[in-house]
Amino acid sequence: MSNRIENRIQTLKERREKALVTYMTAGLPDMEGCKALIKAQEEAGTDILELGIPFSDPVADGPVIQAASYKAIQQGTNLKKVFALMGEIRNEGVEIPIIFMMYYNTILHYGIKEFVRECVQCGVDGVIVPDLPLEEQKELRKALEIEKAPILIQLVSPVSTDRIPKILEGARGFVYCVSSMGVTGQSGNFHQEIINYLSNVKAVSKIPVMMGFGICYASDVAPMKDIIDGAIVGSHFINLMEEHKYSIEAAKEYCQTFKRELNAL
Q: pLDDT tens-digit profile of 160-178?
């Protein structure tokens, strides 16, 4: 059974377009501001939105997202409040596919079945759990087998090489390729290594391949344009929002420009 993520991906395929996926921390600048930002990105043409659920020890995130997560927690953001926010935006007609990017401890603490049930009720389309390896996904996968449950999005990285076919077995939505781009450097040799890695993922993946980590502008993915199906922007978008005091106009302009340039590559 398809959901919003898969429907959006199908539409993009028909239009021969690439996807723009953005990441923002839930609860920033506050709950109302967060709602406004989600709506602005939908209007600007963002295809899929990752909503980061603040966590005290976000091991897979860099300093920018860690700081945003800490700030959101200080303001009282928690999973229960984010569920309420989701229910509100869905009731207000927001249809953009939304994925919760979160840590497994938060799901365990809430209760796996309760978490999935709540996701279904308020319209969460996908879940990314960076600290949950394939071998430990059984319980969550089982809970996600109910109707209209979110898709568990799989992450792969350059060190996953031999495990990629196994990780992607039965995977849905898209595969999130961690590139470590922008951290390692932008030399030609580095690009070649990333291209080889992405090509390997593309060769075994039955679902679209999205590339994330270290992407600021559409031009950053130009060398990989013939391999990837979309780009994920996280830290740069959060920095931009901080700089522009979470301006709706700045968010819209960035997303529109990125999407236009991505499809003009």
A: 888 999 999 999 999 999 9
**Token pair recorded at residue 170:** 């039965």
Half-sphere exposure of 196 (CA within 13 A, CB side): 9
pTM for the model: 0.94
- Measured between alpha carbons, how far is residue 12 from residues 109, 231, 254, 263 in Å? 36, 13, 20, 11
User: Of 50, 118, 125, 220, which one is the catalytic site residue?
Assistant: 50
**Interatomic CA distance for residues 158 and 107, integer angstroms:** 27
The active-site residue out of 47, 61, 118, 125 is 61
Query: Rounded distance, CA 6 to CA 154, Å?
Result: 14
61 is catalytic: yes
Token pair for residue 190?
Answer: 């580095």
Structure tokens at 85: 């926010």
